[in-house]
């Protein structure tokens, strides 16, 4: 719990039972929580509370999550935004990401997955808040921009560091090439998707992962890190 002390989360949803469920779980993890039942209240709270992460439901009366995301991104450029929706629509994901959302989750979801995604967003935007993160044989030190594997420091380029950090923090999840390009290279990257394969190959060599047991390739889907 101590790892999350001082980290501020804003939860925005018009369904009271969802707010209560998330609030209780995240308070138990040590986060400082504020909740809002609608978009206007969320913006008022955010202006004073200055959250590190906002978790926004899309479908709300009045000001929807998309508009809240747009305003938050304009007023609080450092905030990380995770959007929630009851439907898995590609157009919604594209719209949310284009407005500055960092992540997107479809209801129903597990609390453990939400927690992992919050930690991933914090690691990307506020690397000093979590200190050192341990994931199986990996230790990620965001302050030193350093990753240890089985107690040995990996010699990584800045892009290799960002890629491996992203994949390890999201271990167990299948990450497609477009997802990786968006998170590591940026949504406006104009190069070829094959650049991901080049960096994956380099990381496997540095990890001694000849049999691809750590960074797995899932044909037609993407890549997944498995912690051994």
TrEMBL record:
It comes from the Bacteria. This is Response regulator. The modification 4-aspartylphosphate is found at residue 57. Residues 130-227 bind DNA. One of its GO terms (biological process) is regulation of DNA-templated transcription. SMART domains: REC, Trans_reg_C. GO terms for cellular component: cytosol; protein-DNA complex. Residues 130-227 form the OmpR/PhoB-type domain. Residues 8-122 form the Response regulatory domain. Pfam families: Response_reg, Trans_reg_C. The keyword Ribonucleoprotein does not apply. GO terms for molecular function: phosphorelay response regulator activity; transcription cis-regulatory region binding. Keywords: DNA-binding, Phosphoprotein, Transcription, Transcription regulation, Two-component regulatory system. The keyword RNA-binding does not apply.
